Amino acid sequence: MLDGRAGDHELGFRRTERGDLRQIQAWLRHEHVARYWAHDTSDAAIERDFAGSVDGTEPSEDFVVEYGGKAAGLVQRCRIHDYPDGFTELVELVDVPPGALTIDYFIGEPAMVGRGLGSRLIQEFTAVCWRDHVDAPAIIVPVSASNVASWGALRSAGFTRIAVGHMEPDNPLDDGQHVVYRCDRPAGA
Questions:
Q1: What is the reported pTM?
Q2: What are φ and ψ of residue 25, in 5° steps?
Q3: Which domains, and CATH codes, for the chain?
Q4: pLDDT digits 0-9 by tens, 26-43
């Protein structure tokens, strides 16, 4: 069992591998993840939606979040304009400069939820994005308005709310109201 807050352990990110797909599937089945990801967890869906990052056939980059040396969750990043059909509503709602990234994330391990790890994950992964994508001017993240923990973590990590509007929800339980947060590349990053 882990003791203390998120600051007590090292946080790391490693690209997903085929061997991680079963763990991602298990995490997506946890109630706290399924509530906002509402993802088909069949073997075929996991292969379809996560193997492309592993195989390099998708522009999305998926990472396992490691906390204290143990797999804790998932974070994804992509350039928004690499998926024009998937981000039509976002582009209509806010200005998306060329090269802008978006991220999506979850803490998969129930024992690690509520420890402040989300804010730290976002803050540290943002620095990784600036390092790896030197031409990315901003990271823009839409979040269901009902997911207070997620947008609170973005705010705590230094992101600024730039819009509120309707976007098709991932989970039909939600009304489609989203908040959009943005972090611009700091000078010298």
A1: 0.92
A2: -60, -45
A3: 6-184 (3.40.630.30)
A4: 999 999 999 999 999 999
